[in-house]
Amino acid sequence: MLSKQDNEIMTQVGPGTLLGDLMRQYWMPALISTEVPQPDSPPVRLRLLGEDMIAFRTTSGTVGVVANACPHRGASLFFGRNEEDGLRCVYHGWKFDVTGACVDMPSEPAESNFKSKVRVKAYPTSERNGIVWLYMGPRETPPPLPGIEPNLEEGATIQKFLRDCSWLQGFEGDLDTTHIGFLHFGAYEADEVEPKSMDYYTLKRRDPKMMVVDRPWGATYGSYRPAEDDTTYWRVAQYLFPFYAMPPVGVLGARRAVLAIVPVDDTHMMRWQISIPNRWASAGVIRPAYETHPEYGYQPETSGFLGKWRMNQNRHNDYLLDRDLQKNGKSYTGILGIGIQDEAVTESMGPINDRTKEHLGTSDLMVIRLRTLLIKAAKALRDHGEVPGGVDNPEVYAVRSGGVILPNGINGVEATLDLQQGKVAPEDFADSIKVPNYGV
Known about the structure:
With about 450 residues, the protein is α+β, with helices and mostly antiparallel strands. Helices cover about 20% and strands about 25% of the residues. The chain has ten helices and 19 strands. The chain is globular.
């Protein structure tokens, strides 16, 4: 369990906090490009790491992100006029470009040089394949963008979901591969699903053994359980600094997808799902468990910094929990939708879970390692100026997750490293180890 002090370190993300300073070393996904759809489109509100900002796409197409408050009298720049490559405050007409410079101050005498002395806080942005990235760190020249595979080419599916809890609660859930056999698939037995599939092995043994290995990008963790014919089924997954997860869905080495659990503030998180469509993405899944509620979808947008990307099923309506569905055995939870099930349990812990009261078991090995890695990296940055992993070596992010069947006695985390890094195709790897039904 975490101490009270370490729990605060892990959940506080504002400026000057240990974890907040660590997060600010990295580029962060801030907006889907369509949120600022065209030049001079309306400004939008954005909150990341506890800071309120305004984003806008300029006349020339660049995305700017500046502090919410105009440096003149503090009026919100959300109400500003996005025009002629700048954002103009409607209170007194002061106008700022994407660097934060004041380029027009019509309320002051023409001969005044006051505008050259005033700036609004602005952050560098970079746009790549449908995502606007934001750098909130201390470097004058930002580091390279992370080499997240599904963002390196066009055509990725990109989704966002806002949750009312600490980023850590959502993130730890995405690193917990054991809960799938209960929260999501608890109503099913192995003989009810496709033989030799991911779900078949998951339900056949719901108590896998676990192992974790530290990597330059964070950590690789594997859960393993008996398959058949002297073989073992491995689910190999990735943790990538500081807030990326690759759950082991589909065939190891084939699927390019990532989750980003971005801290909005101490008590809210934005879940990003970025994936390249792939025929293996749903290989062998339990179709009924993936059914969604008829009301599944987003609530209408409201004003404020937390008014977008909220689901119709939410804590205010108990996620449309159906006790009859739960009682008759058709659903383990009575809540429809994989993501909604995750949201329900993580938000049910409260805005910030008191981890000093936890009782962690062997299946929580990756959760324990996550906390250790983050606290260690945050303190190393503070005490010794050590740059955390992935900041200056973005190529390490090119890894993958998934399931694989291996002969007994093989360390699946180490033996599949080339497969995880995309250096060998799944079918070639299957031939090399001569295991039938590889990763179905």
